[in-house]
Write a structure and sequence with these properties.
The chain has 205 residues and is of the alpha/beta class. It has a seven-stranded mixed β-sheet. A two-stranded antiparallel sheet has the order 1-2. Helix 1 runs antiparallel to helix 3, helix 1 runs antiparallel to helix 4 and helix 2 crosses helix 3. It is globular. It is found in: Cytoplasm. Belongs to the methyltransferase superfamily. RNA methyltransferase RsmG family. It comes from Rhizobium tropici.
């Protein structure tokens, strides 16, 4: 099986397929993603999430903010299982979604843990990380504010953030308060989307 042109093992394929089955089951009772996108689960969500991991497959410790339906956190944790190293801390304050995420990690033998807490509380529970990921969560300024406590502990921290067509406006606002290096990765799934990779972040005001 290939994900975005990258071949994965049969074990990883089976884990991803099991996750998809769990997702379909749980999505009948709790709102995990927009209902209109469920029929396109593999392309819109699984492949879209996998491309984040594929940008930095050697990363050891991820934090995924508001993991919701498991994107990209559970997918990252499943792909780390193939590597046999690393972990993902998934932050999700909704208790029903957190329960779903825990089931997915356990049954898919993925490398991660779920923290059913608010994002603002997460830096106290998760001391360090190498990469922060988030998908369809908030504007860039807010996401950078969320990351700041971890930045103080790791100046080499990277952020990998999914953004849609309006990202240039958000970048312009963020540059008024932050200095950073930025790499724009064109989404391999959605034509109008990008993954913004931030490094060397420093608050200006």
């Amino acid at each position: 099986m290939e994900l975005n042109g990258v071949r994965v093992s049969r074990e990883t394929q089976e884990r991803l397929q099991h996750f998809a089955q769990l997702f379909q089951k749980w999505a009948k009772t709790i709102n995990l993603v927009a209902p209109s996108t469920i029929d396109d689960l593999w392309r819109r969500h699984i492949s879209d999430s996998a491309q984040i991991f594929q940008l930095h497959p050697v990363t050891d410790h991820w934090v995924d903010l508001r993991s919701g339906g498991g994107f990209p956190g559970v997918i990252t944790a499943i792909l780390l299982a193939e590597k046999g190293a690393g972990r993902v801390d998934l932050v999700e304050s909704n208790q029903k979604k957190a329960a779903f995420l825990r089931v997915c990690l356990r049954e898919c033998e993925a490398r991660g843990a779920v923290h059913a807490i608010r994002i603002e509380e997460a830096p106290a529970a998760i001391q360090n990380c190498d990469v922060i990921s988030a998908r369809a969560l908030a504007e860039l300024e807010t996401l950078l504010d969320y990351a700041e406590p971890w930045l103080r502990r790791n100046e080499n921290l990277r952020l990998l953030l999914h953004k849609g067509r309006d990202y240039e406006r958000e970048l312009q606002k963020a540059r008024g308060r932050w200095q950073f290096d930025l790499v724009k990765h064109q989404s391999v799934v959605e034509r109008d989307s990008v993954i913004l990779e931030f490094s060397h972040l420093r608050r200006l005001i």
